[in-house]
Write a structure and sequence with these properties.
This protein is of the alpha/beta class. The protein contains eleven helices and nine strands. The protein has two domains: about 5-230, Spore Coat Polysaccharide Biosynthesis Protein SpsA, Chain A, CATH 3.90.550.10; about 260-325, no CATH class. Strands 1, 2, 3, 4, 5, 6, 7, 8 and 9 form a nine-stranded mixed β-sheet that branches. The two termini are about 40 Å apart.
Amino acid sequence: MKLDNNIEKDLITVGITSYNSQETIGNAIYSAINQTWVNKEIIIVDDNSDDKSWEKIKEYKKNKNIRVFRNSENKGVAYSRNFLIKNAKGNYIAFFDDDDISHKDRLYFQYLNLKIYQNFHKIQKPIFCYSRTEKKFNHKNSIVFFPPGSDISKNNVRGKKIAEYLLTGKQKKIYSGYYATCSLMAKTEDFLFCNGFDDKFRRCEDTEFAIRSSLKESHFIGVNKILVFQNMSYKKYKSHSIELDYILKIFKKHSNLFNSKKEYKFEILWNILKYKILEKKLFYAITIFLKLCKLDIMHLLKKLFFIRNTFKQNLFIFKNYDENLK
């Protein structure tokens, strides 16, 4: 796509965080360099990798548009992203993951959506833009996840209802979507206004960020086009059990957003059930299911009814889990 040079007044920072990504970091960096948006800088933060990632990253030091940093110890992706936000010179930041590839026009499409949305709705609140993402398992099987708020002519995907959706799934379908940082772009000042990522979260930091940002009346929009190709690589620090631990930490941190202790307990058990099914620990899952029946069978039936829209998606992940566990 040929871009109008007049549109590229804003400097965009492409932020890449890396940890033990020696096999994929080169493609991720090339994906950033290859963006058609000319007025950009690239910042790469290595989280003290113990493989050859840092050696590969250092090779890009000579590129005048690339700055590289390395944490003195492994501090997690949230810490690395906050460091990147504080050091960004760009008016906007787009996050790229170390094992993903972005469409060459990703910066252009997301920038355009942010500008159109802000001008159309005349708002001064933070706006966070995501995109469709294709998740690929084992380099062959894939599934597409849709972003929140993909219709930018509407401005109803905002505020506390997003937090309620992410915690309980109770809100309308318009709040559903993939709130992953690997497809996120926004103004640098909006990341700062929402206090960045909580560095206590080594997983699920993107969900926790979206919850807090929604409480500041942020707006969430999306480009209804696949701009990120995400390679799913299950590693020890990405296991379902670790992810569940951090989801439960999110619940604890934001327990005040639940309507009752019963709702809080239900959501904890519901999420344990989901992850035990993904881990194929079916006997354990049946035990949790029976506890949910006893706690609130009517709410459980409603939950099962509402997840019919994502059943195919969840079944796909369930089938592909074992062969990708590394």
